[in-house]
Design brief:
Elements: E1 2-4, H1 11-21, E2 28-33, H2 44-54, H3 62-75, H4 81-90, H5 106-127, E3 130-135, H6 142-154, E4 160-166, E5 182-184, H7 190-200, H8 208-218, H9 222-234, E6 238-240, E7 245-247, H10 260-269, H11 274-284, E8 287-289, H12 290-296, H13 301-313, E9 317-322, E10 325-330, H14 333-341, H15 345-362, H16 371-380, H17 384-400, H18 404-418, H19 424-439, H20 445-460, H21 466-482, H22 486-500, H23 506-522, H24 526-537, H25 542-546, H26 549-552, H27 556-570, H28 574-588, H29 594-611, H30 615-632, H31 635-652, H32 656-671, H33 678-691, H34 695-712, H35 718-730, H36 737-753, H37 757-774, H38 782-788, H39 798-809
Parallel strand pairs: 1-4, 1-5, 2-3, 3-4
Antiparallel strand pairs: 6-7, 8-10, 9-10
Helix pairs in contact: 3-4, 4-5, 5-6, 7-9, 9-10, 10-14, 11-13, 11-14, 12-15, 15-16, 16-17, 17-18, 17-19, 18-19, 19-20, 19-21, 20-21, 21-22, 21-23, 22-23, 23-24, 23-27, 24-27, 27-28, 27-29, 28-29, 29-30, 29-31, 30-31, 31-32, 31-33, 32-33, 33-34, 33-35, 34-35, 35-36, 35-37, 36-37, 37-38, 37-39
């Protein structure tokens, strides 16, 4: 159930009422609390809940913590040391000497951790029904949302009720699921507000003018009704009698606070010296522990406990016992905000600085020690240098756990802090490290390029290490070819190779030569590309390089094989394609990096079938790719899969709807500045339009393709555009025979120069058909036969089958052309 309503509307109170109704029933309560100060802390509500249930304490030996964790796992019916290892890592429990390194990449570790947490939750429901609450979901972090989405999906098969509370701005990702119910809470009417006032006063009437003022000013918000009524009762404006309250003095306009903030401030002011304890607690967060509060409080021991007791009596704060500690919780986020905002800036900054230092020095192994939490407190303290350091640490931790959205938030906060550091020697290295981490967070394209460009400026100014320079150049090169700037990418790749050749680490060379090979493929230099990729392959070390997937966004060793497969396919070397694809499939087994798996499927399965014209296989493989990418959120490869699938469908059935799907997919890429392979898909669009009989639109698409090639330098599909230009000329109401021949010959020549055998054979077959139709039986079959020689008896490509079928249909064999052969350039 999703319970929504504005702040103070009574969501938490409704949950408490439900708990009161089921007192005495056998059930387990699992409570997850989101927080605005922890909204980008990895899995914060989950970590807090498990830490609390296990009674994890700072300074406790890891062995004891692991024993309790393993007992919880066993009680839930889960097996395997891997589960304990994943969860211990999430909880920041040291596993040294307890578990072996599982050797998985961050994205796989993230998926396995979420899966283990879901099974842990499911295991609890086997013991007893579970009442689970996720409060304040409008502050949830993306990775936590992934976990709860998994829980929502499993709930129908579990003995569990999950209630999620949020404010209206939360976008519910579970709308439309049959087992999910939404309930929106509205403000009180006058009757309900009056009833609430009566309950707070214990049934004693208050003067009508006071009741009317409270109802008018609170505007039906239950929390405001409650707090304002209590503020008035505590103010001394009313005198209690046996059956009612009466005015102690004439009512003035200022006697009743006008806003909830004013009401809460009035109540805090009347707490006297206790107010400071509430303010310190508010600086820590919505929840705060006694141990952390005592570490920074000006009073300790009995005096602090008495102050907290009075704070609890005021009902602004609640308490609950924890193993070796006591946890205090503000009754509402608005109460915490009021207490925090009542601090003067200088005092607030000192408190946050004390909190940060105390966590670092005394609570380093607690859930509060998450780098993002420490960074938040240093930021609030106005201490930019330690804030930037901890935001960087938080970002790197998030990247190591494949929590990319959280990493993006951390780098943004870190850069804001770093740019406030006056000392250039301190600021610039921090800024560079944050920019590199930001670029690795898979941001939208323009933001990635902006981060890399800014990083390169710092590198050019002499800041940074060789590894950072390599990472930035690599990112700029990859961004350039994804953006359709092939010559820029090629130039950067050559720089990277020069740099890598001076390094000892073979990974530098592997990535450098892979980049060079990639840009050579895309610029129509497939033979050179194969040589570069074979050079890169010599530096492959699969086990070592697999763990670099998070750094490069993809397994760098496997990526060499992907582009090698593409080069081999363009060169028409089918046996090499098959061998390389089989090797990729073998190495992808149990590979946890989603981008690596998706790219492997595209480059070594979908793309070869697409190039070779095997439509049935291409369609089914493209659908599988789209499904996988959708599940694993690999968006740009999903769009490529959608395009391949759309092109296959439109080639079979060139309907307006299928052709429109190609256009929409192309536009989707362009809005993201993603232009890789655009020449291929524009050419496919033109071919489908030709099949549909729309020659005008087909010609426009061909012209668009030529313009893109000229603008981008993506040359490897240029032969196809020339071929299609010839077919467009042939399909005109008045065919331009000279243009047909010129274009088809140009297609053959470009393909021959690029060693693109399939494309050359395709153009040659179309030229043969054209010549045969112009002069039936008078076509030199030896040309096609010569092009088919390298393929022996192979039938792997539609182009090979088409060429052989055409030859089989000819009766005259090698009779020389009488009319066409006299034209310059005709074979």
């Amino acid at each position: 159930m999703l319970l929504t309503g504005e702040a103070g509307i009574g969501k938490s109170r409704l949950l408490e009422a439900l708990r009161e109704r089921i007192v005495g029933q056998p059930y387990g309560l699992v409570r997850y609390q989101c927080s605005p100060h922890h909204r980008n802390v990895l899995m914060y509500p989950v970590v807090r809940q498990i830490s609390s249930s296990l009674g994890l304490r700072s300074g406790e030996p890891p062995t004891a913590q692991i024993e309790r964790l393993e007992a919880l796992i066993a009680r839930s019916g889960l097996g395997g040391r891997g589960v304990a290892s994943y969860l211990a890592s999430l909880l920041s429990i040291s596993t040294e000497g307890h578990f072996q390194d599982l050797g998985v990449v961050p994205s796989e570790a993230k998926e396995q951790t979420i899966a283990a947490l879901i099974e842990l939750f499911a295991g609890l429901t086997r013991e007893a029904p579970v009442f689970a609450v996720l409060e304040d979901a409008h502050w949830i972090a993306p990775t936590s949302l992934d976990f709860f989405s998994g829980i929502v999906e499993r709930v129908p098969g579990l003995r569990a009720l999950l209630i999620v509370t949020s404010r209206p701005e939360f976008t519910n990702p579970w709308v439309g699921q049959g087992h999910v119910t939404g309930l929106a809470l509205n403000r009180f009417g006058r009757r309900h507000a009056a009833a609430m006032i009566d309950r707070i006063t214990g049934g004693k009437e208050i003067p009508a003018e006071v009741q009317s003022a409270i109802i008018s000013k609170t505007d039906g918000v239950p929390l405001f009704v409650e707090e304002l009524t209590k503020a008035v009762l505590e103010s001394g404006q009313l005198r209690e009698q046996s059956q009612c309250f009466v005015l102690a003095a004439p009512l003035t306009a200022l006697a009743i606070p006008s806003t909830l903030q004013d009401s809460l401030m009035a109540r805090l002011d009347r707490l006297g010296s206790i107010r400071e304890i509430a303010q310190i607690g508010a600086a820590i967060g919505r929840e705060f522990s006694y141990r952390l509060l005592e570490a920074i409080s000006p009073i300790t021991g009995t005096a602090l406990k008495e102050a907290l007791h009075k704070l609890v009596e005021s009902e602004l704060v609640f308490s609950r016992a924890a193993i070796g500690d006591t946890i205090y919780v503000f009754k509402h986020a608005l109460v915490q905000d009021a207490a925090h905002n009542s601090l003067l800036r200088s005092r607030r900054e000192r408190i946050h600085a004390d909190i940060a230092r105390s966590i670092v020095e005394r609570f380093a192994d607690s859930s509060e020690s998450a780098p993002a939490v420490i960074a938040h407190h240093y930021t609030e303290a106005g201490l930019s240098e330690p804030a930037a350091h901890y935001w960087l640490t938080a970002a790197e931790l998030a990247l190591s756990r494949s929590a990319l959205a959280e990493a993006t938030q951390h780098t943004g906060a870190g850069l804001t802090a770093a740019r406030q550091i006056e000392d250039e020697q301190v600021r610039r290295p921090l800024e560079l490290a944050l920019l590199v981490a930001r670029a690795n967070s898979l941001l939208p394209f323009q933001e990635t390029v902006a981060a890399l460009t800014s990083a390169k400026s710092l590198l050019d100014a002499g800041v940074g290490s060789d590894l950072q320079r390599f990472s930035v150049l690599h990112g700029l090169c990859a961004s350039s070819y994804f953006a359709g700037k092939m010559e820029d990418a090629f130039a950067l790749a050559r720089q990277i190779v020069e740099f890598a050749d001076r390094q000892v680490d073979p990974t530098f060379k592997l990535v450098a030569y892979r980049l060079l090979g990639t840009t050579q493929v895309l610029t129509g230099r497939s033979r050179e590309a194969l040589e570069s990729l074979q050079s890169a392959e010599r530096y492959r070390d699969p086990d070592r390089q697999k763990v670099l997937s998070s750094w490069f966004g993809i397994d760098p060793g496997l990526n060499v094989l992907y582009w090698k497969t593409m080069a081999l396919a363009l060169l028409g070397q089918y046996e090499g394609v098959a061998k390389s694809s089989e090797q990729v499939r073998s190495e992808l087994l149990n590979h946890g990096n989603a981008h690596t798996v998706a790219a492997g499927n595209f480059y070594t399965i979908v793309w070869p079938q697409f190039l070779f014209g095997n439509l049935d296989a291409c369609e089914s493989d493209a659908v599988a790719l789209v499904t996988y990418c959708g599940e694993r959120k690999v968006e740009h490869l999903k769009r490529n899969g959608v395009l391949c699938h759309a092109c296959v469908r439109a080639r079979r059935e060139p309907t307006d709807e299928n052709i429109a799907t190609i256009r929409q997919a192309l536009d989707s890429n362009r809005t993201r500045d993603a232009h890789l392979f655009e020449s291929v898909f524009v050419a496919q669009l033109a071919e489908c339009l030709l099949k549909a009989g729309n020659t005008v639109a087909a010609e426009a698409a061909v012209r668009e393709g030529f313009a893109f090639v000229g603008r981008s330098g993506e040359q490897f599909w240029l032969a196809e555009l020339h071929r299609l230009d010839g077919l467009v000329a042939l399909k005109q109401p008045q065919p331009d025979l000279s243009r047909v021949e010129t274009s088809l010959l140009a297609a053959m020549e470009v393909a021959r120069q690029q060693d693109a055998r399939m494309l050359e054979l395709r153009a040659a077959t179309d030229l043969a058909r054209f010549a045969h139709e112009a002069s039936p039986g008078l076509y030199p079959c030896s040309m096609l036969e010569q092009l088919l020689v390298p393929f022996a008896d192979a039938e792997f490509s539609r182009d090979i089958r088409d060429a052989r079928n055409f030859l089989a249909s000819q009766v005259s064999g090698d009779v020389l052309v009488t009319t066409m052969a006299t034209k310059p350039g005709l074979p």
